[in-house]
Amino acid sequence: MQTPVPNYPSPEPSQPNAAPSSPRTEADQANCSLHDDPNFCLPMLASPERQRAQIGIFDSGVGGLTVLRELYRQLPNESILYFGDTAHLPYGIRSQSEILQYVREILFWMMQQGVKMVIMACNTSSALALEAIRSEVDIPVLGVILPGARAAVQQGKRIGVIATPATANSNAYRQAIQEIDASVPVWQVGCPEFVPLIEQNRIHDPYTQQVAREYLTPLLEQQIDTLIYGCTHYPHLSPVIRSILPRSVRLVDPAVYVVNAALQELELLGLRNTRTALPTQFYVSGCPSTFAQLSVQWLGCMPLVEQVNVADFAHQRMVLPK
């Protein structure tokens, strides 16, 4: 069993010398760590031990591996703690109250492991729980929706979104995009079968091609020029999706942009690690061997995966610094 990172105390934020000249926009604030005054983004004094702490990533399953790959590419010196909540898969059909409960349990467990930052590598969690959770924890928590929305607006003018039913019904992408540019039309399609098909390793099944065509047809009828993967699982389907879309349609993977936001946040807070990364630790709430075997095709190796029941930590209350 791999030894978890010690539970280092969170550093106290330093005080600003002067107020900023203008308020931060909502979009900027969403990529900034939490503080009492939303107009400030304060630097934090980070010890070398804190810099070496892990970044936590969680998803309902293997979808978060798309974010993990980007972390390996953009932040190769960072050590990672990955959690797949496979016992509650799929998140896309869960209620908001269920998602909030799961996310609270996961974040508290990750904070017990001493992570310095958490990335919600799950669009459903980002849509339904991010704002509530940010006010409850004292470490940076990043979601995938705003970085993906900003990237899409920079690339296209007729934007389609494929997402889980919960994310699509939340209108999170439409709201984020239209806050950036109200003139951009957005069409969203809930895709309830995609995550189960991916988790069942049926990506190349003819039925998956049929389902993908059914989901994409309404967006093609609207002549979209940009498509957002509104679930971190969906880039695993890129060969199928690309075979259906015209070549002119741009694909936006929010994983690329949330990791870029994480890089900027780590730099701002003085938390970026410059030493060699430790091996990634993988945990799941369901069956470790199922997750490990499915992950091989994207990781290139068989990961060591352990099972953990994060709900065991739920009875402990988070104590935030005053």
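Above is the first protein from milestone M3; the second protein from the same milestone is given next.
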Amino acid sequence: MKDDVIGTKLAGVAEAPPTVTARRKRGRVPAIYFSIGLLLLLVLVFSLGNQNFLSLYNLNTIASYSAILLMVALGQMNTILIGGIDLSVGGLMSFVSVVFITLIKIVGLWAFPVCIAIALLVGLMNGIVLTRIKIPSFIATLGTGGILTSLALLISPLPVDLPSGSYGLLDIVNGAWLGIPNLLLLTIAGFAFFLLILRYTATGRRIYYTGSNIKMSWMSGVDISRTRNLAFALSGLGAGAAAIMLSSTQYGGDPTSGNVFILQSIAAVVVGGTALTGGTGGPINTLIGALILGVMENGMNVVGVDAYFQQSILGLVIIISVALTFDRSKTAVVK
């Protein structure tokens, strides 16, 4: 009932006479169309550049990398949808990676739920720091990420390997069902979970409401603090699940393994068409974004693009994507 009232109030706002900005928005092509076009263009270019790009082995390599990236990006997506950002995902992934391999030697399969619970708790703590201490999510999560990275290095300054006798414990991730790798099945399940949360639950609607117009959402009765806390908890869940998947595929943990996913997770969300200003986008956009980055990462290596130049290309793609999705009507001054 409460959500119906919220929706009615927000709908009433939407029925106001259209402004110039609103008319421009209606005429704008949805960003996801650009993302799909970019994905198809990249596949075409790389397949022409190297005939082995579309080989079954290489496609499996792209899928494996994209699966892990997608999981952490799906979590990151929730914080961006509310207009925030989570820079702690890298530190959290590194911390969970080391803790997971350390715990699985001691408690076996219990390491899976324990590490997921740790990730959820860290995400929730990020939300509490944001809503209670009232500091920007950029600063709050930057600090949390640094703390988690330090803890990971204190637990294990060097990468920790899992004894070969315990490899069977990781079949949950590394095994297969009906010939389909469990890694992909788990990723599909994770995607379905986030899609269900955002599209078919009150929590998802509140995340979109908050990101679209935080003041109007508060006036309509949305609990802004609770919504933000849940968004950051979901971000922690995505990062924790990605860390477990990464550690399982590598049969070991690395205290610096998550660093690369800080920028990559944000890029996957933005390149897919989710606006940094919040309120626009979703899991399908993030899926397209993760595939774009997976194809770019693999394709540039396959066709022989210099490793240093690859970062320049990624940066250019991010700038273009933000330019296409950034809602300037929410920001009087871009700074």
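Note on the second protein: The chain has a mean pLDDT of 85.
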